[in-house]
């Protein structure tokens, strides 16, 4: 897949997506969002892809936010439409993807950049990363799900403090409040994400997707228990369930097909 603002490649069943606008600190302009929407859809429908690692080019920024230079073009209606489209095609599309997404946060994750990381299922940060939602410094609020996902991840009090002060926090603080799962030196960032996905890759793919779906239903108040019950039932219909149980009984490693 050739993109203008992304580098993407599949290696050993992992799709690596790197946002590649280093001079603008990987800010999300319209074109980058459209390309992200495309690559997210590709990940969802491509059987070879078992997980996605999303990161930014360079040592300075994961993503420094939505592209502020495009904002002057918008009125209220257009801003609302842009937020809705971005949420549907990129941010919610990641969260609802059947494939696990890991954000490898390699520097500044600000505004839409932190919102992008929060839409991913797991976040790993390099120890020099800085995270924040500074939209109120621009007279805006987070528009790509940030008020919701930050609250889900760190609770109401911390979310209100971070959003209303616009303060950036360090990776260490982010780990302490549950905003990121792990903090590692920059040189270990991708390998830590790979370590996690390499474990997930050994598990039953349909069960992995079903588990993520039920967890997301919970945080979005969308009938989590019912989602879990229905998804649990569907697992019994899969070849992978039969393989997993046979492998256990036969004392061998399961070889899942994802069917
Ligand atoms: N948009 C566009 N360009 C950016 C952005 C951005 N978000 N961030 C940095 N850049 C550009 C700078 O303009 C600069 O370009 P140039 O060299 O042409 O002047 C280049 O990247 C390097 O940046 P700096 O010179 O500013 O680098 P510093 O090391 O001095 O500072 C910071 C780094 C602190 C990260 C600083 O760049 C900064 O504060 N950036 C903006 C951070 C921010 O406010 N992000 C939130 C944006 S709002 C948002 O994301 C809303 C999301 C919801 C949208 C809903 C749909 C409409």
From TrEMBL:
It comes from the Bacteria. The keyword Lyase applies. GO terms for molecular function: hydro-lyase activity. Keywords: Lyase. PROSITE patterns: ENOYL_COA_HYDRATASE (PS00166). It holds the Pfam family ECH_1. SUPFAM superfamilies: ClpP/crotonase. One of its GO terms (biological process) is fatty acid beta-oxidation. Gene3D superfamilies: 2-enoyl-CoA Hydratase, Chain A, domain 1 (3.90.226.10), Lyase 2-enoyl-coa Hydratase, Chain A, domain 2 (1.10.12.10). CDD domains: crotonase-like (cd06558). PANTHER family: ENOYL-COA HYDRATASE, MITOCHONDRIAL, ENOYL-COA HYDRATASE-RELATED. Belongs to the enoyl-CoA hydratase/isomerase family. This is Enoyl-CoA hydratase. It comes from Pedobacter miscanthi.
